[in-house]
Amino acid sequence: MDNAELHRLAKEVGEALRRLEARLVTAESCTGGWVAKELTAIPGCSAWFDMGFVTYSNQAKQDLLGVRAETLETQGAVSETTVAEMAAGALARSGAHVALAVSGIAGPGGGSPDKPVGLVCFGWMTSAGRRRTASEQFTGDRDAVRAQAVARALRGVLDVLAT
Q1: Residues 49, 55, 61, 65, Cα dihedral to 10°
Q2: Which of 46, 61, 77, 132 has the smallest C-beta neighbourhood within 10 Å, fewest atoms?
Q3: At the fourth CATH level, which superfamily is domain 3-162?
Q4: Confidence at residue 83, expressed as pLDDT on a 0 to 100 scale
Q5: Is 136 in a helix, a strand, or coil?
């Protein structure tokens, strides 16, 4: 995944949001704000980007996004349930119409047989009630996993806006 592709996707997301007169909020964990960085690199993004949360720790996910402690204890931070709650919390705590959330294991450590390095979970939600989650298994080093996650997160925004 190269920077030009990420920039193209971010620009496409911005154009779609502008057409719909919608604003986006991000809730990121393993990508550490990279999605927000790509989006805010687009001139004019203040018209459609509301804010971004970087909630790396479980406590931050609870405090800032309202993820339930029970979810984190039973499902873990890297789960579709967690990213769905992250997206819902981000949407509720912002002025946005669309939320995306991402949490994963970028590596090189931290994986397990059930949740290997490269596993990333995504959640998207709109104020109109559309909700989607997905999990992807990416390959490569830490930067490669994170870059692929950023691209998938942006593609997911385009998908949820198209429905």
Answers
A1: -20
A2: 46
A3: CinA-like (3.90.950.20)
A4: 98
A5: strand
